Amino acid sequence: MPHPPAATAARPLMTWPDLTKRPHPVADATVAYGSDPLQVIDIWRPAGAGPHPVVLMVHGGCWQTEIADRRLMDWIADDLRRDGVAVWNIDYRGVDRSGGGYPGTFQDVGAAADRLARDAATYDLDTTRVVAVGHSAGGHLALWLAGRAKLPANSVLRAAAPLKIAHVVSLGGLPDLEATAATPENGCGTEIVARLTGVAGGARPDVFADTSVPRLLPIGVGQDLVNGREDRIIPYGMATDYVAEAKAAGDRAVLHTIPATGHVELIAPETPAWAETKRLIRAALAK
């Protein structure tokens, strides 16, 4: 009597070298928005006539430059470029760099985003519907960018005319800084939050009021959270809790759970996670 086929072993989760050791694609242009070497933006522009739809991309790395910079997003940026979508891939000073932390990291991200509105015509980019995509800590920053209109009036992070974000896709993000600080099992640790937000004091008793996305809800922007069910860096519950809070505040927020997926797969162009993310990006751009 024939034996049933052996069960197929689960594919191991991707590691960082699985992504970073492959050939590195090259952006079409790099522009500076400040004097620091990290205050730059890589522009990935599709072939052919524009104006091209555009994704504003924000890398993660636990808000630390030592861990990651914009180049970690190059493979998915190149994939979008091949599909006819331009990418505005921003960098910023992390908390481990001079000028980073509060307010510098946030001001960098805001300035890099606002430069898109200024330079869109130069690169033939269509900014009528900008989709922000952020990975890990960049998921927090992408959502924060979409909520800048809700910043407190007395915040030094306010901008006169912040770039309008039409939609956000957070890939294994950390949108709630208070929850991050209270969750030791998150891969960035808890002490990093104080380095990002600054320490509460007399002039600024609430450091989360202008830094943590739940404090800005509702932000009035559609939000898709794509999370790997096997992510060992960002606890899955951080996504479910945030989505529930955003929906309770009146925002449209949807959690997309990708099975057999960790943290790295979210930004690897050959994965089911990225295929789902591209579907969401296309749908958001088409609205």
Question: What this model shows, in words?
Answer:
- With 287 residues, the protein is an alpha/beta fold.
- It has one domain (16-286): Rossmann fold, CATH 3.40.50.1820.
- The protein contains 8 helices and 8 strands; from the N terminus they run αβββαβαβαβααβαβα.
- The protein has helices at 16-20, 74-82, 104-119, 137-146, 177-181, 192-197, 236-248, 272-286, and strands spanning 29-32, 40-44, 52-58, 86-90, 125-135, 167-171, 222-228, 253-258.
- The protein has an 8-stranded mixed beta sheet with strand order 1-2-4-3-5-6-7-8, with helices on both faces.
- Helix 4 (137-146) links the parallel strand 5 and strand 6 (167-171).
- It starts with 15 loop residues before the first helix and ends with a helix.
- Residues 4-9 have low confidence and may be disordered.
Output the number of helix runs: 8
CATH architecture: 3-Layer(aba) Sandwich
Task: Say how many strands there are.
Answer: 8
Task: Give the spatial strand order of the biggest sheet.
Answer: 1-2-4-3-5-6-7-8
- Topology order in helix (H) and strand (E) letters: HEEEHEHEHEHHEHEH
Mean pLDDT: 96
Q: What is the terminal-to-terminal distance?
A: 57 Å
Q: Can you say what the CATH homologous superfamily is? A: Alpha/Beta hydrolase fold, catalytic domain
- Mind summarizing the main beta sheet? 8 strands, mixed
Approximate helicity band: 25-40%
Residue runs with pLDDT of under 50 for 5 or more positions: 4-9
Shape: globular
> What's the CATH class label?
Alpha Beta
What is the third-level CATH name, the topology?
A: Rossmann fold
β-strand amount: 15-25%
